[in-house]
Amino acid sequence: MEIFTYMESYDYEQLVFCQDKNSGLKAIIAIHDTTLGPALGGTRMWTYDSEADAIEDALRLAKGMTYKNAAAGLNLGGGKTVIIGDPKKDKNPELFRAFGRYIQSLNGRYITAEDVGTTVQDMDLIHMETDFVTGISPEFGSSGNPSPVTAYGVYKGIKAAAMEAYGNDSLEGKTVAVQGVGNVAYTMCEYLHEEGAKLIVTDINKEAVQRAVNAFGAEAVGPDEIYAVDCDIYAPCALGATINDDTIPQLKAKVIAGSANNQLKSTEHGDIIHEKGIVYAPDYVINSGGVINVADELNGYNQHRAMKKVETIYDSLTRVFEISRRDNVPTYVAADRMAEERIKSVSTSRSQFLLNGHHTLSRR
Ligand SMILES: NC(=O)c1ccc[n+]([C@@H]2O[C@H](COP(=O)([O-])OP(=O)(O)OC[C@H]3O[C@@H](n4cnc5c(N)ncnc54)[C@H](O)[C@@H]3O)[C@@H](O)[C@H]2O)c1
Ligand SMILES: CC(C)C[C@H](N)C(=O)O
């Protein structure tokens, strides 16, 4: 991989390699764009097949956070970290503290939080070395685990997508096929069940499936069967790229709306589902509840204010659907336009009035 060529292609600002032999830390912090503010994005811990895969994941996820934060109306840029390692075996307190010192060295250009493979306890360890971390324990006046709030935002987003597809946002009597009933999706299922939706669930973890069957009377199907079930809404809540050449022909749902990041295997798949008339809620818009919640900590966390802001995911998606209809483009393109317009408007005013952080007039 030609790293500078890759960085240039999407105009990445910075890539930081962090190594600490004592603790075994091998981390990559990618900062994509700080036009709107400091880069905020989670830390993923994962066993990558190669260093190139880890670098690519960090870069791809960091760019996703730029768009997610911009579309959510946050004054924050996009960044992400990947730690190379097995979250079940390779964690130790020194590793997260060493990582915290690297974050501190960036002096606020990057702020972290949870992502796949990391927990509130890990954030607390990072917090021993730096204040540039969110999603730490509520004892510190912080917001804690972002997953339940992400779930609330996804639930609101499913309602917005149902409104677009069915002209009514009630989910009573609607059948939702949920792929992956982990941290986010379990809470999302609680909201759906409460509203009277029928749930069909799958997971590679049998206990997770059983929990949903017991709690919500959900119907369980095998991991490969979820795409073809008779349902109104398909909610991908496991890993990415599940909307692809194999799955699209099987889908019966009129709506795709779930929490997973990077749901489209490629943009071409976003075009295909658009042509088929499926309403797709772009992933980074519908799953922005977690980042909206942790970002509120930067103002002194207020749960009521954070939840009110998370509710605006409904309006953001409604706007995306409007742009999609107005410009006759797929919804993933409409979401990108919404985010890019926001970044462009700020970068224009910055280049007009500011130079190196100082008003140009102060240089006279
Ligand atoms: N946690 C958050 O606040 C948050 C915020 C934004 C986006 N997301 C995204 O939402 C998704 C879920 O996050 P989470 O925190 O709930 O993770 P999680 O690990 O708690 O849940 C994921 C679930 O998916 C299951 N799974 C994995 N592969 C599967 C497969 N092939 N078929 C069926 N099930 C499978 C896992 O067993 C697990 O139960 C991820 O893509 C994550 O990046 C999470
Ligand atoms: C900042 C975090 C809460 C980000 C979250 N992991 C996401 O992908 O949106």
Explain this structure.
By secondary structure, the protein is of the alpha/beta class. It folds into 2 domains: 3-64 and 77-133, 3-Layer(aba) Sandwich (Rossmann fold); 146-287 and 317-339, Rossmann fold. Helix content is 44%, strand content 15%. It contains 13 helices and 14 strands. The strands form 3 sheets. Strands 1, 2, 3, 4, 5 and 6 form a 6-stranded mixed β-sheet that branches. α5 crosses α10 (289-295), α5 runs parallel beside α12 (313-327) and α10 runs antiparallel to α11. The longest helix has 23 residues, at 331-353. It is globular, with a radius of gyration of 20 Å. The model is unreliable at 359-364 (pLDDT under 50). Nicotinamide-adenine-dinucleotide (NAD) is lined by residues 116, 146-147, 150, 179-185, 202-205, 208, 223, 237-239, 259-261, 287, 290. NAD(+) binds at residues 180-185. Pfam families: ELFV_dehydrog, ELFV_dehydrog_N. Residues 144-351 form the Glutamate/phenylalanine/leucine/valine/L-tryptophan dehydrogenase C-terminal domain. GO terms for molecular function: L-leucine dehydrogenase activity; nucleotide binding.
What's this model, at a glance?
Helix content is 44%, strand content 15%. With 364 residues, it is α/β, with parallel strands linked by helices. Helix 5 (147-166) runs parallel beside helix 12 (313-327).
Q: Which ranges are low-confidence, i.e. pLDDT below 50, for 5 or more consecutive residues?
A: 359-364
Task: Give me the CATH fold name of the largest domain.
Answer: Rossmann fold
Rg calc: 20 Å
- The number of helical runs is 13
Query: How far apart are the first and last residues' alpha carbons, in Å?
Result: 46 Å
Report the sheet-strand fraction: 15-25%
Give the biggest sheet. 6 strands, mixed
The CATH C-level name of the largest domain is Alpha Beta
How are helices and strands ordered from N to C? HEEEEHEHEHHEHEHEEEHEHHHHHEE
Class of secondary structure makeup: alpha/beta
Instruction: Indicate how many domains the architecture comprises.
Output: 2
SS elements, strand count? 14
CATH architectural arrangement of the largest domain: 3-Layer(aba) Sandwich
**Average pLDDT, to the nearest integer?**
94
